[in-house]
Amino acid sequence: MERDAVAGTQARQGCPAPSLGGDVTPVSVPSRDGAEQAQRTMEVLQASPNVFETFFDEARIGLALLDLSTRYVRVNRTYAELLGQPPEDLVGVPFSEVLHPEDRLGDEDRADRLLDGSETSLTSEARYLAPDGTTRWVLNGVTTVPGPDGRPAWFAVSAQDVTERRRVEEELRALTATLAERAVRDPLTGLANRTLLEERLRAVLARDARSGQSTAVLFLDLDGFKAVNDEHGHAAGDVVLKTVAQRLMAAVRPSDTVARIGGDEFVVLVEGATDKGIAGLVERIGVVASERVPTLDLQVGVSIGVALAHAGNGEPQALLAAADRAMYAAKNDPAKAAGKGRAGRS
């Protein structure tokens, strides 16, 4: 034990402590000269307030001091530049007045949390509104500064312009949303594609299982479309497809889904379906899909197959297959003339 005590004393004195094996192990200790130098430097800084004045004024991050009523007492040049004003013009201005109106809500609550000690510092992003109407997104850090009695006397604010970062983030969000939308949309017509159709059909059937409602699927195939492509080219065929897509969207209710699932095949998903409603919709589709395309002076017909699911019974793929079979049965039925729509039901 005495040997350990001696080793500890030697280590604290900066001497090498012998190991139990007799080898010497170097021990690093803080330099007394270094500590004394740091103390002298601090004393010089405290006696030279201009150092802190210069730091505050020349800092490349916005700095501001507010009183407890959140009015500016002092701001540096960088902070004032965020608002396009001279520093002196901000003195006495309430902090809330430089914020965008939509970002002012909760400002007093945040100040109260700092004053009552429930928070030691707060960080948030808000828009600063300059007198000329321009806005900048700013990352604010706020804390309290104690007075001589140790209680909060001021608010200290640091501010960093993050407008460019926010712009890039917004562009990325918009791009992500666009790509996600494209993944479930037919690129030619803008209608839902098969992926989105099946997703919605699955959700509707699940809801019907709880509510007891019915859902209908109308499978459409254009009659005479191949001849349009063969005789007038694929560009003309694209015009026909887009025209039919627009007419189908105009014929259905806002709650219904129209999808193009390939070639000249379309599907209409009808929620809350009734026999009377389906009969009326089939008739409307037969009329609008068979109207002439004015820009091309062309006309196609349509064959329609209908499948109905009651109270959520059935799977999306099975319902689509049933409607597809009903459509082909109608198309191949010699008793049903082509023209303004041939319809069959599963």
Description:
It is a single chain. Helix content is 44%, strand content 23%. By secondary structure, the protein is of the alpha+beta class. It folds into 2 domains: 35-166, Beta-Lactamase (2-Layer Sandwich), CATH 3.30.450.20; 184-345, Alpha-Beta Plaits, CATH 3.30.70.270. The strands form 3 sheets. Strands 4-3-7-6-5 form a 5-stranded antiparallel beta sheet. It has a 5-stranded mixed beta sheet with strand order 9-10-8-11-12, sandwiched between helices. Strands 1-2 form a two-stranded antiparallel ribbon. Helix 9 (225-232) runs antiparallel to helix 10 (234-251) and helix 10 runs antiparallel to helix 11 (275-289).
Topology:
Layout: H1 2-12, E1 17-18, E2 24-25, H2 32-46, H3 49-58, E3 62-66, E4 72-75, H4 77-82, H5 87-90, H6 107-115, E5 121-129, E6 135-146, E7 152-161, H7 163-183, H8 194-211, E8 214-223, H9 225-232, H10 234-251, E9 257-262, E10 265-271, H11 275-289, E11 301-310, H12 316-331, E12 342-345
Parallel strand pairs: 11-12
Antiparallel strand pairs: 1-2, 3-4, 3-7, 5-6, 6-7, 8-10, 8-11, 9-10
Salient structural properties:
12 helices; elongated; Alpha-Beta Plaits; 5-stranded antiparallel beta sheet; 44% helix; 5-stranded mixed beta sheet; alpha+beta; 346 residues
